[in-house]
Design a protein that fits this description.
Layout: H1 4-11, H2 15-23, H3 30-43, H4 49-56, E1 61-66, H5 72-87, E2 91-96, H6 101-111, E3 118-121, H7 128-132, E4 138-141, E5 151-154, H8 156-169, E6 174-179, H9 189-201, E7 205-210, H10 218-231, E8 237-241, H11 242-254, E9 264-269, E10 282-286, H12 288-303, E11 312-315, E12 317-320
Parallel strand pairs: 1-2, 1-3, 3-4, 4-5, 5-11, 6-7, 6-8, 8-9, 9-10
Antiparallel strand pairs: 10-12
Length: about 325
C-alpha cells in the first residue's frame, strides 16, 4: 500500500507538501497540486482518514450504538442513517452491544477519543452519568434523560391508544402484550402502559408477559409463543414487536385459531417483517425516515455549534391496518 512518502517521491515534492494538499491547510501552486493528485491516482493512494481527522480535530465519523444488528427496526434505521450521513460527507461506525452492559460501557470509553465526531445512542442500559459525562455531541433515541441531552422518540403513547382501540373494535376480551421489563425506562414502554390502562377501562383483561427480545431468534420466539398459547388458551389478542408478533401469528394459526376472527395480532415497529409472513400484520409503524432525518439534523446542528430548536423531538406513530385485526 502506497504511503504519503511514496506520493511525495513520485511527484518530486516534500511529504509536507502532500500533507498540505490533503488537509487543505495552506495554498499550494496549482501545477504542484496537479502533480500530487496524479501521483496519488497512479499509486492508488488512499489517505488515512483517521490521521487527517486527528490533525483537523475532526474524523468525519459518527458512531451509532444499537442493541443488536439482527433487530429489524435498528438495522433498518442504521441503514437509513448511514446512507444520509454518507451523502453529507460522513461515515457511520456501527456498534452492536447485544444487550451487554459492559460492552456498551467499553464502546463509550473508546468513543471518548478523537475516533468519532458524535454519537447516536440507540441503547440506554448504563447509569445516566455515563451519558451525561460524554464529551462529544450525542443524540439519544427513545430515552429521555431530561438533563440536556437531545432525544428523538416516537409518540408511543399514541401507539398505545391506537392498539387499544383496535383490540376493542376487534372484539377482544383477553389480551396479552409482550415486552422486556428491563426496558421500562425507555419511552417505548409508554405504549404498554397506555394499552393496559385503556383496555382496563374497557373492561378487557390485559396481561403483560415478559420476554427478553434479544435472547431468541424467530424459532425461539415461536416455541415461547406456542407455550404461552397453550398456557392461556383464552387469549384472543396479542401485541408484540414485529418478530415476536410474527411468531405468535404462526403459533396461533398452527393450533387452528382463526385470525382475525378469534385472535388479533398487532405488531410494534412496522418493519418489512410485517409484510413477508403468512399474513400482513396490523402494525404500529415507527417512521424510520422521519426518525433518521430528525436525528441527523439535530446532530449536525450540535457539530456546527448551533442551538437546536427543541431538545426533544417526538415523531408521529401511525397504525398500518393489516389482515390480523378486524
Amino acid at each position: 500500500m502506497a504511503s504519503i512518502r511514496d506520493v511525495a517521491n513520485k511527484a518530486n515534492v516534500a511529504p509536507c507538501t502532500v500533507s498540505r494538499v490533503l488537509n487543505g491547510t495552506a495554498n499550494v501552486a496549482p501545477e504542484t497540486k496537479q502533480k500530487i493528485e496524479m501521483a496519488m491516482k497512479e499509486l492508488n493512494y488512499i489517505p488515512n482518514e483517521l490521521a487527517r481527522g486527528m490533525f483537523k480535530q475532526r474524523s468525519g465519523i459518527i458512531a451509532m450504538l444499537i442493541p443488536s444488528i439482527r433487530h429489524p427496526y435498528f438495522s433498518n434505521l442504521a441503514h437509513y442513517i448511514e446512507t444520509r450521513l454518507y451523502e453529507n460527507g460522513y461515515k457511520l461506525m456501527l456498534c452492536s452491544t447485544d444487550g451487554q452492559i459492559e460492552k456498551e460501557r467499553e464502546y463509550i470509553r473508546i468513543l471518548q477519543s478523537n475516533l468519532v465526531d458524535g454519537v447516536i445512542m440507540g441503547v440506554s442500559d448504563l447509569e445516566d452519568a455515563a451519558y451525561l459525562q460524554f464529551k462529544k455531541p450525542m443524540i439519544m433515541l427513545d430515552y429521555d434523560l431530561k438533563k440536556g441531552i437531545p432525544v428523538v422518540v416516537s409518540d408511543h403513547e399514541k401507539g398505545g391508544y391506537l392498539a387499544a382501540n383496535t383490540f376493542i373494535s376487534s372484539g377482544c376480551k383477553n389480551v396479552i402484550h409482550i415486552g422486556d421489563k428491563e426496558l421500562s425506562k425507555v419511552e417505548s414502554y409508554k405504549c404498554h402502559k397506555v394499552l393496559e390502562r385503556e383496555l382496563e377501562r374497557a373492561d378487557i383483561k390485559c396481561r403483560f408477559v415478559e420476554i427478553k427480545w434479544n435472547e431468541f431468534d424467530f424459532f425461539g420466539y415461536l416455541d415461547i409463543a406456542a407455550t404461552i398459547l397453550e398456557k392461556y388458551p383464552d387469549i384472543d389478542g396479542v401485541m408484540a414487536a414485529d418478530i415476536q408478533a410474527s411468531a405468535f401469528l404462526k403459533a396461533a394459526l398452527t393450533i387452528g385459531k382463526k385470525v382475525p376472527e378469534d385472535f388479533a395480532v398487532i405488531s410494534i415497529d412496522g418493519t418489512y417483517v410485517t409484510d413477508i409472513g403468512l399474513m400482513n400484520m396490523t402494525s404500529l409503524v415507527q417512521s424510520i425516515d422521519q426518525i433518521g432525518d430528525a436525528t441527523i439534523k439535530m446532530l449536525f446542528n450540535l457539530l456546527a455549534g448551533k442551538k437546536i430548536a427543541k431538545r426533544k423531538v417526538v415523531i408521529d406513530i401511525k397504525e398500518k391496518k393489516g389482515e390480523t385485526t378486524k
